[in-house]
Amino acid sequence: MEPVYSSVISTARMLWLAQGLKFDISGVENVPKDGPGVVAFNHTGYLDFTFAGIPAYLQGKRYVRFMAKKEVFDNAVGGPIMRSLKHIPVDRANGAQSYHDAVDYLKRGELVGVYPEATISRSFELKSFKSGAARMALESGAPLVPTIVWGAQRIWTKGHPRNMGRNGFKIMVGVAEAIAPEGTPEQLTARLHESMRAKLTELQDGYGPYPPGEFWVPAARGGGAPTLDEANAMDAAEAEEKARKRGEQ
């Protein structure tokens, strides 16, 4: 047991109870009972990681060491907590150190959580994947653990206000069968993407109902979210604007 991690989980449970969240967790048996695993999960909102670790905790109270942008660790309040939980800071300008830290954790038998999409998907469908998760798995010999979180975007996501009150939202977390670390990084990344796409569709099908035009509902299901192509264009425009501002400094 890790007292700090255990205390954080207890606090999260109380918050979820206060919010009235309803959980549907499946595929716990697909999380390794011991040894390493790269927990790869989708990115629809700012709180995905708090839910993505639930299956591992249910599988023998295992803890996940999440990779998160270094700005979170720079925060005066959040930083010390993140470090005490042994999460891994990611400097997007130089990710070599975080990659090596993650592989080291895996070689020591830990579960490491990573967003293959890198950034939040405004469409709530899967974006293209970076190859980092696959490369970690291949280098460490750890299996990939495809994990999908669905419904968290209703609480807090990019471009929309937080809804942290008593909302009664349903949160689904599903884990697909683990994927052996075999093949090239590109082949393994493709297998991971397909596995997570299938699990996402499964969870979306079982969620509903989907109110027409709601911001958290994908366009393909009649919602107000942008399509994947539209979201990609928005991301590209945002990245271009950030680059322009950096150039002016």
N-to-C order of helices and strands? HEEHHEHHEHEHEEHH
Name the shape in a single word: globular
Beta-strand level of the residues, as a percent range? 5-15%
Q: State the helicity in percent bands.
A: 40-55%
Separation, N- and C-terminal Cα atoms: 47 Å
Oligomer: single chain
Roughly how many Å is the radius of gyration?
18 Å
Report on the biggest sheet: 7 strands, mixed
Total number of distinct structural domains: 1
Query: How many individual helices?
Result: 9
- Low-confidence stretches at least 5 residues in length (pLDDT < 50)? none
What strand order characterises the main sheet? 1-7-6-2-5-3-4
Count the strands? 7
The residue-averaged pLDDT reads 96
**Structural class based on helices, strands and sheet pairing:** alpha/beta
Organism: Gordonia spumicola
Pfam family, one: Acyltransferase
GO molecular function: 1-acylglycerol-3-phosphate O-acyltransferase activity
Keywords: Acyltransferase, Transferase
How is the secondary structure organized here?
Layout: H1 3-19, E1 22-26, E2 37-41, H2 48-52, H3 54-58, E3 64-69, H4 70-74, H5 78-84, E4 88-90, H6 96-107, E5 111-114, H7 132-140, E6 144-150, E7 170-175, H8 185-207, H9 228-248
Parallel strand pairs: 1-7, 2-5, 2-6, 3-4, 3-5
Antiparallel strand pairs: 6-7
Helix pairs in contact: 6-7, 7-8
